[in-house]
């Protein structure tokens, strides 16, 4: 594993994303996380997973530099679908996954966190979907999961303004379970994991399976439509301008083309 570290503590696997400087969800990171889940799923000694980020962030989003190599609507849609499949696997994973979020969970980073079963955040963390600032849209099922947690109106506000919320406010709107001082974040996540790991694995698996029944057929249609729209939007002049502006550290000039 180049971008993921694993440590087993009692019956909890602590997975750490280590892709400096921002722990961006590059294609290789997504592939490694999927591979790591394969190993954990068959490891009977692991009952709970804590997912966190190394350094300053949980994950500050997708790898924008990778976006510059995408040359077609089809490839962009395929990128979105790959990320969506990983998020769906996490959400449907038979062992609970706790996201311990510090610094920032933005864009793909928040989409990853939203797919986890439980989210613990630092009080000062920033959570948001700022894709519209880049002239694109969320592509890893963010348009479908965010309204589930915060409601349609708040989700619309967060995505259309591209402005993040703090860890404290994330709890208030239902996006996170609890907010704690950053220095206590991992301890709180491990305390929660320990409470869960003491339960019967069969009952844990049953509960997680039953929770998935809350998802409707509309969710599947929604993520399919999201991937298609991501591909279409990605080919616009505004998308090129937004991505270049981000990499050049300047304000984008969107023209609607």
Automatic annotation (TrEMBL):
Domain of life: Bacteria
Family of the protein in this entry: Belongs to the enoyl-CoA hydratase/isomerase family.
NCBIfam families, alphabetized: PRK07658.1
Keywords on record: Lyase
Organism: Pallidibacillus thermolactis
GO MF term set: enoyl-CoA hydratase activity
EC number annotated for this UniProt entry: 4.2.1.17
Name of the protein in question: Enoyl-CoA hydratase
UniProt entry tagged with the keyword S-adenosyl-L-methionine: no
Listed Gene3D superfamilies: 2-enoyl-CoA Hydratase, Chain A, domain 1
Keyword Lyase: yes
Pfam families the UniProt entry points to: ECH_1
């Amino acid at each position: 594993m180049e971008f993921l570290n694993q440590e087993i503590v009692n019956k909890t696997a602590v997975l750490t994303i280590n892709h400096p400087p921002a722990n961006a969800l590059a294609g290789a990171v997504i592939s490694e996380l999927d591979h790591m889940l394969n190993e954990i799923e068959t490891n009977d000694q692991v009952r709970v997973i804590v997912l966190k980020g190394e350094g300053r962030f949980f994950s500050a989003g997708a790898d924008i530099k990778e976006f510059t190599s995408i040359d077609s609507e089809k490839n962009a849609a395929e990128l979105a679908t790959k990320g969506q499949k990983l998020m769906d696997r996490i959400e449907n994973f038979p062992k609970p996954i706790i996201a311990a979020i510090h610094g920032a969970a933005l864009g793909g980073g928040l989409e990853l966190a939203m797919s986890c079963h439980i989210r613990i955040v630092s009080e000062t963390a920033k959570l948001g979907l700022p894709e519209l600032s880049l002239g694109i849209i969320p592509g890893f099922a963010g348009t479908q999961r965010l309204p589930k947690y915060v409601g349609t109106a708040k989700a619309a506000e967060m995505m259309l303004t591209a402005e993040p919320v703090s860890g404290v406010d994330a709890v208030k709107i239902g996006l996170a379970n609890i907010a704690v001082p950053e220095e206590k974040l991992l301890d709180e996540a491990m305390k929660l994991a320990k409470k869960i790991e003491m339960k019967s694995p069969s009952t844990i698996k049953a509960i997680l399976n039953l929770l998935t029944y809350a998802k409707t057929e509309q969710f599947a249609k929604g993520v399919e439509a999201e991937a298609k729209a991501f591909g279409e939007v990605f080919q616009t002049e505004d998308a090129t301008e937004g991505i270049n502006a981000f990499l050049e550290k300047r304000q984008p000039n969107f023209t609607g083309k």
